[in-house]
Structures are given as C-alpha cells and as structure tokens.
Design goal:
Layout (H helix, E strand, L loop, with lengths): L1 H29 L5 H25 L2 E2 L1 E4 L5 E7 L5 E7 L21 E4 L8 E4 L4 E2 L2 H7 L17
Helix pairs in contact: 1-2
C-alpha cells in the first residue's frame, strides 16, 4: 500500500511540474523563442500525464490496503487511498458484502498470489485486495464473510489460519 501511496503522490507532483512548464513554454512560443513542435510536445506531455493521473487514481482508490472485521462481526473496515494519496477508512455492514459464491468470483479459487475482487451491495465501486500485500487482521472472520467457511477449500499453505 505504501508503494501505491508513493506512486499516487508522485503522479501529483509530476502533473504539477509539467503543468508549470506549460505556461512558460506558451510565453516562449508566442515570442518565437521555441518552435511550434516543442510547444505542442509540452502541451501533449501535460495532457498525457494529467490523463494518466486520473486513470491511475481511479484504480488506486479501489485497492484495499487493510481489511478488518469488528469483534462482534457486524462491521467491516476497508482501508483505501484517496485521490491525494491519503488513507481513507470506509465502514460497511458485514451483511452487505457479497459472498464469493453469489458474486462474480463464484468459479475462482482463493489464492495468496492473485488480486481478489470484493463486492459490496451498498456501493457501486468495486474493491480489490491482495492477500499477499494487504493486511487482514482476522483470517477466520474474513474467510467466513467472503464465503470460504471450509478451510479445506483454500489452495495455499501460506495462510496463517491460527
């Protein structure tokens, strides 16, 4: 998650720097100091970095860094990033989480190495989490919430099920 935070903030600084270079290049172009080609390359670079920022932040905001289920089992916390790269904790009722057997991941196998899909009824956003890089505070509760009540269904020995 820290790498995604770094990448998100780096893209913000990169867009700011490129946009700051666009204004002087316009001045230099209108006074004949640079060619039309250089000016349009600057504008194209600024446009493409801004577009890349919005595309990357769209996906970065859907990746879950931490997944926590309350002690009473009624609430789930998803820790995601904001557009600016800050942490945002989002709380949802456990009942709103769609089990794997009912959602799009019905025929998939839970694996430690892949990115998993998490569906929640209340929101239109799709969330993604990685069991390898994200934090899950209680594996037993998490497996029960997503519909893996039988631990024998797991295909990987790296899950710490204690």
């Amino acid at each position: 998650m820290s790498w995604l935070r770094f990448a998100s903030r780096f893209k913000l600084f990169q867009v700011g720097f490129i946009l700051a270079c666009t204004f002087p290049s316009h001045y230099w172009y209108t006074h004949g100091m640079i060619s039309k080609y250089v000016f349009w390359m600057t504008v194209g670079t600024a446009t493409s970095t801004t577009l890349a920022l919005f595309i990357l932040s769209y996906f970065f905001r859907r990746i879950v860094g931490e997944l926590w289920i309350s002690d009473d089992g009624q609430e789930i916390l998803l820790s995601t990033l904001t557009f600016w790269g800050n942490r945002q904790n989002r709380y949802f009722p456990v009942d709103s989480v769609i089990a794997w057997g009912d959602g799009k991941m019905a025929n998939k196998v839970l694996s430690y190495d892949t990115i998993q899909h998490l569906e929640i009824n209340e929101v239109k956003e799709k969330f993604y989490y990685s069991l390898q890089y994200g934090k899950v505070y209680d594996w037993q509760k998490m497996f029960k919430v997503i519909g893996y009540e039988d631990e024998n269904q797991l295909n990987d020995d790296r899950f710490d099920k204690t």
